[in-house]
Amino acid sequence: MLWYAIQTYTGKEEKLAEMIRRMVPQECAGECFVPYFEQLHCWHQQNQIRVLRLFPGYIFLSSDDIGGLFQWLKRVPAMSRVLTAGAFEFAPMYDGEAEFLLQMMDPDHIVRLTYVATDGKDRVSYLSGPLEKCRDHIRDYQFRRRYAQVRLRIAGQEKTARVGIILNDDVRRETAYGKVEAPIRTPEKYEVPALKKPSDGLAPGDRVAVIEGAFEGNVAVISRVKSSDVQIAVHMFGRDLLAEVPAVSVRKLA
C-alpha cells in the first residue's frame, strides 16, 4: 500500500475522512484517518488533557490503485467542493514517512503523552512514550506549555508538529480530559500509563557502551541494576573500576 496526504479545509478533516471511508470501496482505499495528539494543560493545580489535530487541514489514506481512488474521490461531495474551489492537494508520501508517523500513534491514531524526566535544569535525562522513537527529530521543548516541537517530513515537505509531554509533578495530580477533537470516547479520568524504568532491558553481565558522563567512550560490564541507575565495571589503569551511573548514560552492546 502507498500512502497519500490529502489537504482540505481545517476543521473539516474528520467529516471528509468519514465520507471517504463510507463511499470509497475498500479495494480502492485502505486505511483513512486524521492524526491527533494529546496535550496537557495545567490550570490552578489541575491537569486537563486535550486531544487536538496533529496536522490541521490534512487527512491520510492508503491505496494501491491511485487512478481508481481519484475517480471515487471526485464522487465524494465534500471532495468535489474542494476540487471546485481549487484548494485540493493530493501528494504521495515518501519511503519511511508513513511508517514513522504510524509508529508514533496508537490504534486510535493518537500520539499519546510522553513522560519526560529532567535534571532540574531543563535538560532531558529520560523519555518514556512516543518521543522515544523520534529523539533525533526533536527541535526543542516547551516545558511550561507541556509539549515538544518535532520536525517531520510529510509528502516531501518539512512540517513542525507538537507532541505532548507530561512531567513528574503532573503525574502526582489528578488528570481529566477536556477538549477532544478526535471522535473517541474518553474516560472521566486520565490514567497515567505504566512508565518504563530507565534500566529496563539491562541486566548484570551485559556489555554496554558509556555514552555520556565521566566514563563516556568506554566499554563496561554491568554488575548491578537499579530502577534508574546501574553499577558498571570499567577496565582502566590495569584494573576494573566500579562506578554507579544513570541507566540512560549506557547503551547495551550486541
Mean pLDDT over all positions: 85
Helix run count: 5
Strand content: 35-45%
Q: Looking across the biggest beta sheet, what order are the strands in?
A: 9-8-12-11-10
User: Unreliable segments (pLDDT under 50, ≥5 consecutive)?
Assistant: none
Instruction: Give the SSE string.
Output: EHEEEEHHEHEEEEEEHEEEEEE
Rg from alpha-carbon coordinates: 23 Å
Main beta sheet, described?
5 strands, mixed
Q: Structural class of the secondary elements?
A: alpha+beta
Query: Based on DSSP secondary structure assignment, what is the total number of beta strands?
Result: 18
Count of folded domains: 2
Choose one word for the global shape. elongated
State the separation between the terminal residues, measured CA to CA: 33 Å
The helix fraction, in percent, is 10-25%
What does this structure look like?
The chain is an alpha+beta fold and 254 residues long. The protein is 16% helix and 41% strand. It is built from five helices and 18 strands. The strands form four sheets. Strands 9-8-12-11-10 form a five-stranded mixed beta sheet. A five-stranded antiparallel beta sheet has the order 17-16-15-14-18, with no helix packed on it. Strand 11 (147-154) and strand 12 form a beta hairpin. It is elongated, with a radius of gyration of 23 Å.
